[in-house]
Amino acid sequence: MNTRPFSYWRYSPLSTGVLVTLVAGLIRLIAASIGDGVMPWIWLIGVLIGPIVGVVLHFTSTRVLFGRLLDFAAFMLLLAAMLALAAAILQQLVSTNVIFFWAGGAGLVIAAGVVGFVRDQRSWFRAQLPCGYDGRLDERTGKVDPYAPTPRQFNQPKPRGLLKNPSVQIVAGIVLAQLVVRFLPNTGKLAVLLLTIGGLVAIFGFGAGRVASVCLATWRWERQNGKQIHVVR
After folding, report:
1. Is residue 172 part of a domain?
2. pLDDT at 160 over 60
3. Which of 95, 122, 162, 186 has its CA 20 to 30 A from that of 140?
């Protein structure tokens, strides 16, 4: 069976839709472990809009900037859902106004996003490949080939081991939190889940900053060169 490499899916809006569905399902499981009535309504929007827009874009457009903007929107939508769920958890821990939580959550997202944005802007990727982290851009045509390795990838050692995969680390953290809360009282369970969500918010905030950097670099390259960047499929 002919399978696509991972670099291909990093340029496909379909992968964004899958990510939205998986994380939204994870949020739903966390909410179910807390109780009824705490599921943020924005979760439903993520489940419906993310995959649908991803499918439509995948089959109607090859422009990379559209896919990157969808990535950024997906990150922000999932961040909003996680913050809303964390607010619901916090209200069960302390029956007070959570205005300070929203301020702190927004500050965490902004701080992580700024770190991700600045770090990505200073990376060698943005100088060689403004539109992503894989493939090679033909500056003459504006076509990016996701199958071709970037120059540094020829000699760059790839991380080995399943545990070094960020996605596996996130899932492992959630599973570990679920196992820990089984032996804690209700207040302890909510606190652990709140900390877990806080970690996810920081990770996704950092990712949103990196995606924003890619969007800006792609748009800037297109403006300077007078052509759009399209992915080869």
Report:
1. yes
2. no
3. 122
